[in-house]
Structure prediction request, 379 residues.
Amino acid sequence: MSIERLSCHGLRNLQPLTLHPAPGINLVTGANGSGKTSLLEGLYILGMGRSFRTRQLKNVIQHEADELTLFGRLAGDDENPGTSLGVRRPREDRELELRLGGERPARLSELVGTLPLQLINPDAFRLLEGPPARRREFLDWGVFHVKHEFLTGWKRMRRALKHRNALLRRGKLGGGTDVSQLDAWEHELATRGEQVDRLRRDWFSAFLPLFEQTLDALMPLERLTLHYARGWDKKRSLAEVLQAARETDEHMGFTQQGPQRADLRIRVNKKPAVEVLSRGQQKLVVSAMKLAQGRLLESQSGPGAAQRHCVYLIDDLPAELDSYYQQRFCELLESMQCQAFITSVEPNVRWLPETKASVFHVKQSAPGEPGQSWLVDGH
Prediction:
C-alpha cells in the first residue's frame, strides 16, 4: 500500500501541487520555512483527518484560500484495486468533508484504517517523556489496525467510564449515587475493559519481539525493557477492583483504576529510559517502536486482503542523529520495502548512498515576492 498521487490546494504556504511519489523512499528537501513539514502535514491530514501541528484545521488553510482540499490515490495490485481518499475543509465551515473511494464514509475511522500512517518528528520524544496518554494512543493505534473488534469494545468501554464518572461526581457533590445505575455501568465497564485489555495484551505479545529486533538493527541497547501495564491490579479482575474502590472513587470524583490508566513502561536498568538515554538514543528507540508497529501491521494482514504497509512521515531525520545512524535508519526502511517521506534541509545527503530515493525540492519565493512555496522534481 502506497500513495501514488497526492494533490493539495490551500495548504499553508504551498502553491497548489500534484505529486507522484515513488513507492519507496521520497526525499523532500528545502530551506527552513519553505514548506517541507507542511507537505508531511497534508499527508497526515489526508490519512488521519487532523493535523499534528494544530488543533484547529482552519489554521492550516492558506491565508488567501477559501478552503483546504487534499486528494490522494492509493496504489493497488492485480487482486486488490487501489482507492482514492479526499479531505475538504472550507474556511467558513467547521465540518470536515471526507471521501473514500468517491463515497462519504460513515465514520472517520474508515479513513484512518485505509491509510495507516506513522509520524516521526521532533515531537516524537513525547512518546517517552510525555504522559501515559501518549503511549496509550500509540498502543491503541496498533491494536485498532490489526484487531477489528477493538474499536467497538474501546468505544463502549469509554462510554461506560464516562457514565460511571458522572455518577461518582454526583455522589461527591451530595446528589446521591444511584446504586442500580452504578452497578449497570460498572458491569459494562468491567466487561469491555477486560476485552480491551485482552486485545492490547495479545497485540503487545506480538509487537514486543518485533520491537526488539528493530531496535537491535538500529542500535542495540542492553538492559532496555518495554512492559505493558494494564492499569489495575493484575491479580484481580476489573469488576473486583471497581467494586472495592467505589468509596474512594466517589471521594475523588473519578475512576482511579482501569484500562484508561494503561501504559507502556520503557526502562533502562530499571530506570525510566528518558532519564538515562541521550536524545539521539531516545529518537532511535521511538523510531524502532514506530517501525515495529508497521512491521506488525504488515505481518498480520489477513489472507486474501491487500498487503498492508504503513506510510512513514519522517520530519528532519538528521536531527539528533549522526551520519552513521541516519544511514542505518534508511537502510532499515529500504529493507522493509515501505513508502516513506523524509525531509531534510540538505539537498545532497550522504546517508542514502545505496538507496534509490525520489527527490523533491520545495522552493521558496524570492525576497519581496508573495510568501509562497512550490514543489519541483529534484531529478
User: Anything to note?
Assistant: Residues 189 and 217 are 40 Å apart (CA to CA). The chain has a mean pLDDT of 89. The radius of gyration is 23 Å. The chain is about 40% helix and 20% strand.
